[in-house]
Each structure stands twice: as structure tokens, then as C-alpha cells.
Amino acid sequence: MTSAGYLVVVLVLLVTCSVAELANEFVEASEGSTANLPCSLSAAEFPDKVSNILWYRGAEESPIYKYEARGSHPRHWAEGNLQNRYFLRVSDKQAQMTISPTKNSDEGDFHCRVDFQHSATKITHVNLTVIGK
């Protein structure tokens, strides 16, 4: 690889890594209990406000849950097949996706994407393990 090619690769990696801040979490819950999946809301620039919180499941490209904080009243939206078992609780520094009651089919990887008004997007990866009865 030429030095110019190497420089391009390094610049692409720097830009890609600076666009989203990543965090990894692991959660365990018994089948039939409540699971709380954390999502950090701490912005890189202080003070800043959350614009949107989007939850994704696995490699799906469409969110399973949306929280829009723009405007005077935050709005929640959940995918129809979640059977009213998923709900997002939002505080100043953290959001928690509550799943209750948990099912074995809930087990897997989740991704929480937080868009801020000024700061870079923040992504939290959460691995949920459901322990069967």
C-alpha cells in the first residue's frame, strides 16, 4: 500500500470512530421476569439535549422502538409485535428499555442509538441473556 493509500485508510478510520461513541453492556434476566437494558445519555458536549433514542434488534435496519424528544412532548413508538412488553424509561443520564415479562425469544443483541442536538451520536450495544425456567 502506498503512503497516500495508508493515509486515506487512517483518515477514514478516524472519522468513522469519532462519529459514534460505543459502549457494551450485558444483561441477564429469568424467563418471565423483567429485563432492563441500559442506554447511556451522556453527551460528549455539555450541556446538550437528546433528540432521538432508537432501539434496534440484532442486525435489523429498522428500529423496534423510537423515542422522539423534539418538541414540547416526547413521543414513544414501538413495533406492533412487541405486545406492549417493551417500554422506554428516560432520565437525565440514562434510558432503560424495560422488557416485561421476558420470553426466551427476547434473547439476543440490542443496539441503542442516541442522537443529540450538537454532540456525536452515541451507540450502546446490549447483549440480553434470558435464563429459562
Automatic annotation (TrEMBL):
The keyword Signal applies. It holds the Pfam family V-set. SMART domains: IG. It comes from the Eukaryota. Keywords: Signal. Residues 1-20 form the signal peptide. Residues 28-129 form the Ig-like domain. InterPro entries: Ig-like_dom, Ig-like_dom_sf, Ig-like_fold, Ig_sub, Ig_V-set. The keyword Signal applies. This is Ig-like domain-containing protein. The lineage of its organism: Eukaryota, Metazoa, Ecdysozoa, Arthropoda, Hexapoda.
